[in-house]
Design a protein that fits this description.
single chain, about 260 residues, mainly beta, about 50% strand, DUF3108, DUF3108 domain-containing protein
């Protein structure tokens, strides 16, 4: 009997350790997958200002012993804007396929004379983040299920907005530029917007901006219109600046879970 109790104790300890090592959450995802390709065009008034391409690699990558989507976001200025403010930015996130959490995050920013290149590694078991080029002293403590800028957006795409009340704020912890903060997005219900491809049913979202921001007019100066379907991809984004406004329109897409339904 004593040996039996000791055996049960050992199994309990081992199983507890096993659970701790495999404590990743599981997030159902029917909204995106490998091979998704989306292109956007940004207008400032009547001028073409920039272009952005969002790509989910057709193949999966293993990072930190976890299968991951590799998502690239490339942004660049065009036309007259490129002569005044030259931007060539790349962000890359390796997103855990089952937990929808980042394992690595890469940035390469080229904005006029400004340059920044950095690789960030996430350790979700220890709740830490570290830049690969730095020393061990530069390890940051982060909350559970912390995101980078890209993975936070992809996590929002997995949310069932039919179960959320209009006006409700969704908060997602995120880490960027050595800082932990809460990405806050307010759900504003559903609507129909007109695009160059036609009208489409959308979900309305407002990223909640901190007060006193030098660029934006008010707390909810950014309005994101997301397709009200399985994909939940932005089809239009409107931004109110202190001087003028910007609009980002969907230009082209392929590899979505289902075709977008314009009418």
């Amino acid at each position: 009997m004593k040996k039996f109790l000791i055996g049960i104790g050992i199994l309990s300890v081992l199983s507890t350790g096993f659970i701790a090592l495999n404590a990743y959450r599981r997030v159902p995802n029917n909204s995106f997958g490998p091979g998704e390709h989306i292109e956007y065009r940004v207008h400032y008034g009547f001028l073409n200002a920039a272009e952005a391409i969002v790509d989910v690699s057709p193949t999966l990558y293993k990072v930190n012993d976890r299968p991951c989507y590799r998502v690239n976001v490339d942004g660049r200025t065009v036309g007259a804007f490129d002569l005044v403010t030259r931007v060539r930015d790349t962000w890359r996130s390796y997103i855990d396929t089952s937990a929808i959490l980042p394992q690595k995050f890469y940035t390469n920013l080229q904005e006029n004379s400004y340059r920044k290149e950095e690789n960030i590694t996430f350790n979700h078991e220890a709740n830490t983040v570290k830049a690969e080029e730095r020393t061990e002293k530069d390890v940051f403590n982060v909350p559970d299920n912390v995101h980078d800028l890209i993975s936070g957006y992809y996590f929002l795409r997995t949310i069932d907005f039919n179960k959320i009340s209009s006006g409700q704020v969704i908060e997602v912890p995120a880490f960027y530029d050595d800082t932990v903060y809460n990405m806050k997005v307010r759900y504003r219900g559903k609507d129909v917007v007109k695009t160059k491809q036609g009208k489409i049913n959308v979900i309305k979202l407002n990223p909640v901006l901190p007060p006193g921001n030098a660029m934006f007019k008010q707390e909810e100066s950014i309005r994101i219109f997301v397709s009200d379907d399985t994909n939940k991809v932005p089809v239009k984004v409107e931004v109110d600046l202190w001087i003028g406004s910007m609009v980002m329109d969907l230009k082209r897409n392929e590899g979505l879970k289902q075709p977008l339904k314009f009418y």
